[in-house]
Specification:
single chain; 339 residues; mainly beta; Thrombin, subunit H; 5-stranded mixed beta sheet; 4-stranded antiparallel beta sheet; 29 strands; 2% helix; globular; WD repeat; WD40_rpt; WD40/YVTN_repeat-like_dom_sf; autophagy; WD repeat domain phosphoinositide-interacting protein 4
Protein backbone atom coordinates (compact mmCIF):
# COMPACT_ATOMS: atom_id res chain seq x y z
CA UNK A 1 0.00 0.00 0.00
CA UNK A 2 1.35 3.43 -0.96
CA UNK A 3 2.10 5.86 1.85
CA UNK A 4 -0.69 8.38 2.56
CA UNK A 5 0.62 11.92 3.11
CA UNK A 6 -2.67 13.72 3.89
CA UNK A 7 -6.43 13.41 3.64
CA UNK A 8 -9.09 16.14 3.63
CA UNK A 9 -12.76 16.67 2.81
CA UNK A 10 -14.03 19.13 0.24
CA UNK A 11 -16.09 22.13 1.36
CA UNK A 12 -19.47 20.40 1.63
CA UNK A 13 -18.00 17.08 2.86
CA UNK A 14 -19.46 15.17 -0.10
CA UNK A 15 -15.96 14.13 -1.25
CA UNK A 16 -12.52 13.58 0.20
CA UNK A 17 -9.09 13.42 -1.37
CA UNK A 18 -6.11 11.26 -0.49
CA UNK A 19 -2.59 12.56 -1.21
CA UNK A 20 -0.17 9.69 -1.77
CA UNK A 21 3.45 9.01 -2.60
CA UNK A 22 2.16 7.57 -5.86
CA UNK A 23 -0.25 10.37 -6.80
CA UNK A 24 -3.71 11.61 -5.85
CA UNK A 25 -7.13 10.01 -5.46
CA UNK A 26 -10.50 11.68 -4.96
CA UNK A 27 -13.50 9.79 -3.58
CA UNK A 28 -17.21 10.34 -3.33
CA UNK A 29 -18.47 9.80 0.23
CA UNK A 30 -22.03 8.55 -0.38
CA UNK A 31 -21.71 6.07 -1.95
CA UNK A 32 -18.00 5.46 -1.42
CA UNK A 33 -16.60 5.49 -4.96
CA UNK A 34 -13.23 6.51 -6.39
CA UNK A 35 -13.84 9.44 -8.79
CA UNK A 36 -10.38 10.70 -9.75
CA UNK A 37 -7.08 8.82 -9.91
CA UNK A 38 -3.81 10.52 -10.88
CA UNK A 39 -0.74 8.35 -10.74
CA UNK A 40 2.84 9.20 -9.86
CA UNK A 41 3.87 9.75 -13.49
CA UNK A 42 1.34 12.58 -13.82
CA UNK A 43 1.63 14.41 -10.47
CA UNK A 44 4.53 12.82 -8.61
CA UNK A 45 3.99 12.36 -4.89
CA UNK A 46 1.46 14.84 -3.47
CA UNK A 47 1.72 16.44 -0.03
CA UNK A 48 -1.43 18.58 0.15
CA UNK A 49 -4.54 19.12 -1.94
CA UNK A 50 -7.60 21.35 -1.81
CA UNK A 51 -10.71 20.73 -3.86
CA UNK A 52 -13.18 23.42 -4.94
CA UNK A 53 -16.45 21.72 -4.03
CA UNK A 54 -17.06 19.14 -6.79
CA UNK A 55 -15.82 21.18 -9.73
CA UNK A 56 -13.02 20.24 -12.13
CA UNK A 57 -10.38 22.37 -10.37
CA UNK A 58 -8.15 21.28 -7.48
CA UNK A 59 -4.95 22.75 -6.02
CA UNK A 60 -1.93 20.69 -4.98
CA UNK A 61 1.46 21.07 -3.32
CA UNK A 62 4.08 18.40 -3.92
CA UNK A 63 5.40 16.41 -0.98
CA UNK A 64 6.22 12.90 0.14
CA UNK A 65 9.10 10.78 -1.13
CA UNK A 66 8.90 11.41 -4.88
CA UNK A 67 7.84 15.02 -5.48
CA UNK A 68 7.65 16.21 -9.08
CA UNK A 69 7.47 19.93 -8.22
CA UNK A 70 8.96 22.26 -5.60
CA UNK A 71 7.20 22.49 -2.22
CA UNK A 72 6.98 26.29 -2.51
CA UNK A 73 4.59 26.07 -5.48
CA UNK A 74 0.81 25.69 -5.63
CA UNK A 75 -0.42 24.13 -8.87
CA UNK A 76 -4.08 24.32 -9.87
CA UNK A 77 -5.12 21.39 -12.06
CA UNK A 78 -8.11 21.17 -14.37
CA UNK A 79 -9.44 17.61 -14.43
CA UNK A 80 -11.25 18.23 -17.73
CA UNK A 81 -8.17 19.61 -19.52
CA UNK A 82 -5.91 17.11 -17.69
CA UNK A 83 -3.23 19.72 -17.10
CA UNK A 84 -2.10 22.53 -14.80
CA UNK A 85 -3.89 25.83 -15.49
CA UNK A 86 -2.51 28.08 -12.72
CA UNK A 87 0.73 28.27 -10.75
CA UNK A 88 1.60 30.27 -7.63
CA UNK A 89 5.21 30.30 -6.38
CA UNK A 90 6.48 31.59 -3.03
CA UNK A 91 9.79 32.07 -1.25
CA UNK A 92 9.01 29.45 1.42
CA UNK A 93 7.34 26.01 1.48
CA UNK A 94 3.54 26.02 1.33
CA UNK A 95 2.15 24.24 4.40
CA UNK A 96 -1.52 24.11 3.41
CA UNK A 97 -4.04 25.49 0.92
CA UNK A 98 -7.63 26.68 1.34
CA UNK A 99 -10.09 27.48 -1.44
CA UNK A 100 -13.59 28.75 -1.97
CA UNK A 101 -15.28 29.56 -5.26
CA UNK A 102 -13.71 33.03 -5.43
CA UNK A 103 -10.51 32.81 -3.37
CA UNK A 104 -7.33 30.74 -3.03
CA UNK A 105 -5.33 30.98 0.19
CA UNK A 106 -1.74 29.75 0.56
CA UNK A 107 -0.50 29.26 4.13
CA UNK A 108 3.22 29.55 4.85
CA UNK A 109 5.02 29.35 8.19
CA UNK A 110 4.74 33.07 8.95
CA UNK A 111 2.51 34.42 6.19
CA UNK A 112 -0.87 33.86 4.56
CA UNK A 113 -1.32 34.95 0.93
CA UNK A 114 -4.83 35.58 -0.42
CA UNK A 115 -5.58 35.48 -4.17
CA UNK A 116 -8.61 36.10 -6.33
CA UNK A 117 -9.51 32.80 -7.95
CA UNK A 118 -10.00 31.25 -10.47
CA UNK A 119 -10.92 34.13 -12.82
CA UNK A 120 -8.34 36.89 -13.22
CA UNK A 121 -6.11 35.45 -10.46
CA UNK A 122 -4.03 38.05 -8.62
CA UNK A 123 -2.64 38.48 -5.13
CA UNK A 124 -5.02 40.59 -3.07
CA UNK A 125 -2.90 40.92 0.07
CA UNK A 126 -0.61 39.11 2.53
CA UNK A 127 -1.13 38.64 6.27
CA UNK A 128 1.82 38.31 8.65
CA UNK A 129 1.20 35.60 11.26
CA UNK A 130 2.87 33.97 14.23
CA UNK A 131 4.92 30.88 13.51
CA UNK A 132 2.38 28.40 12.13
CA UNK A 133 4.33 25.24 11.24
CA UNK A 134 1.14 23.15 10.95
CA UNK A 135 -0.41 25.55 8.45
CA UNK A 136 -3.55 25.98 10.58
CA UNK A 137 -6.11 28.10 8.75
CA UNK A 138 -9.76 27.77 7.76
CA UNK A 139 -11.79 29.61 5.13
CA UNK A 140 -15.56 29.93 5.33
CA UNK A 141 -17.30 28.60 2.21
CA UNK A 142 -20.55 30.49 2.93
CA UNK A 143 -22.01 33.98 3.07
CA UNK A 144 -19.65 35.21 5.78
CA UNK A 145 -16.38 35.25 3.84
CA UNK A 146 -14.09 34.73 6.83
CA UNK A 147 -10.51 33.57 7.20
CA UNK A 148 -9.51 32.17 10.62
CA UNK A 149 -5.98 31.38 11.84
CA UNK A 150 -3.92 31.34 15.09
CA UNK A 151 -3.25 34.78 16.61
CA UNK A 152 0.05 36.13 17.88
CA UNK A 153 -0.90 35.52 21.50
CA UNK A 154 -0.92 31.90 22.71
CA UNK A 155 -4.43 30.49 22.56
CA UNK A 156 -5.87 33.28 20.42
CA UNK A 157 -7.37 33.21 16.95
CA UNK A 158 -7.62 35.98 14.39
CA UNK A 159 -10.55 36.51 12.02
CA UNK A 160 -10.32 38.47 8.77
CA UNK A 161 -13.44 39.34 6.76
CA UNK A 162 -12.38 38.89 3.14
CA UNK A 163 -15.60 40.55 1.92
CA UNK A 164 -14.42 43.93 3.19
CA UNK A 165 -10.97 43.81 1.65
CA UNK A 166 -9.57 45.21 -1.55
CA UNK A 167 -6.39 44.37 -3.43
CA UNK A 168 -3.32 45.15 -1.30
CA UNK A 169 -5.50 46.27 1.65
CA UNK A 170 -6.60 43.82 4.33
CA UNK A 171 -9.12 44.60 7.04
CA UNK A 172 -7.85 44.68 10.61
CA UNK A 173 -8.08 41.15 12.06
CA UNK A 174 -10.45 40.57 14.97
CA UNK A 175 -8.92 38.60 17.86
CA UNK A 176 -10.61 36.08 20.16
CA UNK A 177 -8.68 34.79 23.17
CA UNK A 178 -9.97 31.24 22.89
CA UNK A 179 -7.65 29.11 25.08
CA UNK A 180 -4.64 29.32 27.38
CA UNK A 181 -2.51 26.89 25.37
CA UNK A 182 -1.55 27.07 21.70
CA UNK A 183 -4.30 26.58 19.13
CA UNK A 184 -4.08 23.05 17.69
CA UNK A 185 -7.31 22.64 15.72
CA UNK A 186 -9.79 24.98 14.00
CA UNK A 187 -13.10 24.67 12.18
CA UNK A 188 -15.67 27.06 10.73
CA UNK A 189 -19.26 26.21 9.85
CA UNK A 190 -20.78 26.49 6.37
CA UNK A 191 -22.19 29.99 6.80
CA UNK A 192 -19.19 31.32 8.72
CA UNK A 193 -21.33 32.23 11.73
CA UNK A 194 -19.57 29.84 14.15
CA UNK A 195 -15.95 28.88 14.79
CA UNK A 196 -14.75 25.88 16.81
CA UNK A 197 -11.34 25.86 18.49
CA UNK A 198 -9.19 23.47 20.50
CA UNK A 199 -5.79 23.91 22.14
CA UNK A 200 -2.82 21.60 22.20
CA UNK A 201 -4.16 20.17 25.46
CA UNK A 202 -7.10 18.77 23.51
CA UNK A 203 -9.56 18.38 26.38
CA UNK A 204 -11.99 21.19 25.50
CA UNK A 205 -13.60 22.40 22.29
CA UNK A 206 -15.04 25.91 22.37
CA UNK A 207 -17.61 27.18 19.88
CA UNK A 208 -17.68 30.92 19.16
CA UNK A 209 -20.07 33.36 17.49
CA UNK A 210 -17.85 34.77 14.75
CA UNK A 211 -19.71 38.09 14.57
CA UNK A 212 -20.20 38.83 18.28
CA UNK A 213 -16.97 37.04 19.36
CA UNK A 214 -18.99 35.42 22.14
CA UNK A 215 -18.58 31.90 23.54
CA UNK A 216 -21.59 29.76 22.58
CA UNK A 217 -20.63 26.29 23.83
CA UNK A 218 -17.85 24.60 25.77
CA UNK A 219 -17.60 20.91 24.96
CA UNK A 220 -15.45 18.38 26.78
CA UNK A 221 -13.75 15.76 24.61
CA UNK A 222 -12.21 14.07 27.65
CA UNK A 223 -10.15 14.52 30.78
CA UNK A 224 -6.79 13.29 29.44
CA UNK A 225 -4.71 15.47 27.07
CA UNK A 226 -5.00 14.47 23.42
CA UNK A 227 -3.97 15.60 19.96
CA UNK A 228 -7.03 16.65 17.99
CA UNK A 229 -6.85 15.84 14.28
CA UNK A 230 -10.12 17.27 13.08
CA UNK A 231 -13.23 19.23 14.10
CA UNK A 232 -16.23 19.57 11.78
CA UNK A 233 -19.72 21.04 11.99
CA UNK A 234 -22.71 19.37 10.36
CA UNK A 235 -23.98 21.23 7.28
CA UNK A 236 -26.89 22.67 9.30
CA UNK A 237 -24.58 23.44 12.27
CA UNK A 238 -26.79 21.44 14.63
CA UNK A 239 -23.97 19.03 15.52
CA UNK A 240 -20.17 18.92 15.78
CA UNK A 241 -17.77 15.98 15.59
CA UNK A 242 -14.07 15.62 16.39
CA UNK A 243 -11.29 13.04 16.14
CA UNK A 244 -8.13 12.62 18.19
CA UNK A 245 -5.19 10.30 18.83
CA UNK A 246 -7.30 8.51 21.44
CA UNK A 247 -9.07 6.70 18.61
CA UNK A 248 -12.54 8.00 19.53
CA UNK A 249 -14.88 10.05 17.34
CA UNK A 250 -16.98 12.32 19.56
CA UNK A 251 -20.36 13.73 18.45
CA UNK A 252 -21.81 16.79 20.20
CA UNK A 253 -25.16 18.56 19.87
CA UNK A 254 -24.77 22.29 19.23
CA UNK A 255 -28.33 23.51 18.61
CA UNK A 256 -30.00 21.28 21.23
CA UNK A 257 -27.11 21.18 23.67
CA UNK A 258 -29.33 19.60 26.37
CA UNK A 259 -28.83 16.35 24.43
CA UNK A 260 -25.16 16.27 25.44
CA UNK A 261 -24.26 14.18 28.46
CA UNK A 262 -23.56 15.85 31.78
CA UNK A 263 -22.22 14.50 35.03
CA UNK A 264 -24.76 13.35 37.62
CA UNK A 265 -23.05 15.86 39.92
CA UNK A 266 -23.53 18.77 37.51
CA UNK A 267 -25.96 20.57 39.83
CA UNK A 268 -23.35 20.66 42.59
CA UNK A 269 -21.63 23.82 41.38
CA UNK A 270 -18.94 23.78 44.06
CA UNK A 271 -17.31 20.83 42.26
CA UNK A 272 -16.15 23.16 39.49
CA UNK A 273 -16.22 23.48 35.71
CA UNK A 274 -15.05 19.93 35.03
CA UNK A 275 -18.25 18.48 36.47
CA UNK A 276 -20.42 21.09 34.69
CA UNK A 277 -18.95 20.38 31.25
CA UNK A 278 -20.96 19.11 28.30
CA UNK A 279 -19.75 15.66 27.27
CA UNK A 280 -20.34 14.01 23.90
CA UNK A 281 -23.85 12.91 22.98
CA UNK A 282 -22.42 9.86 21.21
CA UNK A 283 -19.08 8.37 20.18
CA UNK A 284 -17.47 5.50 18.33
CA UNK A 285 -13.93 4.17 18.03
CA UNK A 286 -11.47 3.80 15.16
CA UNK A 287 -7.88 2.49 15.18
CA UNK A 288 -6.04 4.76 17.67
CA UNK A 289 -2.61 4.28 16.13
CA UNK A 290 -3.32 6.39 13.01
CA UNK A 291 -4.69 9.88 12.38
CA UNK A 292 -8.17 10.32 10.92
CA UNK A 293 -10.64 12.99 9.86
CA UNK A 294 -14.39 12.91 10.43
CA UNK A 295 -17.50 14.62 9.06
CA UNK A 296 -21.26 14.34 9.00
CA UNK A 297 -23.03 12.52 6.19
CA UNK A 298 -26.75 12.00 5.48
CA UNK A 299 -29.40 10.66 7.87
CA UNK A 300 -27.59 11.34 11.17
CA UNK A 301 -24.44 9.53 10.17
CA UNK A 302 -20.75 10.32 10.64
CA UNK A 303 -17.87 9.08 8.50
CA UNK A 304 -14.25 8.73 9.62
CA UNK A 305 -11.44 8.52 7.06
CA UNK A 306 -8.21 7.12 8.50
CA UNK A 307 -4.58 7.38 7.39
CA UNK A 308 -4.37 3.57 7.36
CA UNK A 309 -6.74 3.60 4.38
CA UNK A 310 -9.91 2.62 6.22
CA UNK A 311 -13.39 4.16 5.91
CA UNK A 312 -15.84 3.97 8.83
CA UNK A 313 -19.49 5.05 8.82
CA UNK A 314 -21.71 5.13 11.91
CA UNK A 315 -25.25 6.32 12.54
CA UNK A 316 -26.30 7.99 15.83
CA UNK A 317 -29.54 9.11 17.45
CA UNK A 318 -30.60 11.68 20.05
CA UNK A 319 -30.40 9.04 22.80
CA UNK A 320 -26.66 8.71 22.20
CA UNK A 321 -26.81 5.28 20.59
CA UNK A 322 -24.25 4.73 17.85
CA UNK A 323 -24.01 1.77 15.47
CA UNK A 324 -21.80 0.90 12.51
CA UNK A 325 -23.27 1.13 9.02
CA UNK A 326 -20.25 0.30 6.90
CA UNK A 327 -16.51 -0.35 6.81
CA UNK A 328 -14.22 -0.27 3.76
CA UNK A 329 -10.58 -0.01 2.78
CA UNK A 330 -10.95 2.98 0.46
CA UNK A 331 -7.67 2.47 -1.39
CA UNK A 332 -9.14 -0.82 -2.65
CA UNK A 333 -12.43 0.75 -3.78
CA UNK A 334 -12.98 0.77 -7.56
CA UNK A 335 -13.96 3.90 -9.44
CA UNK A 336 -16.57 4.89 -12.00
CA UNK A 337 -16.68 7.40 -14.82
CA UNK A 338 -19.06 10.05 -13.41
CA UNK A 339 -17.70 13.00 -11.45
Amino acid sequence: MSSINSIRFNQDKSCFHCCLDNGLRIYNVEPLVEKVHFDEKFLGSVGYCEMVYRCNLFAIVSGGNRPKYADNTVLVYDDIKKRSVLEFTFTQPVLSIRCRRDRLVAILKNKIHIFSFPNNPQKLFTIETRSNPSGLCELSPGIHNLLVFPGFRDGSIQIVNLSTTEASVSSCPVTINAHQGEIACLSINQSGSMIATASDKGTLIRVWDSQKRALLNELRRGSDPATLYCINFSLDSDFLCCSSDKGTIHIFAIKDSHLNRRSTFSKMGFLGNYIESQWALANFTVPPECACICAFASHSSVVAICMDGTFHKYVFNSDGQCSRLSFDVFLDVCGDEDF
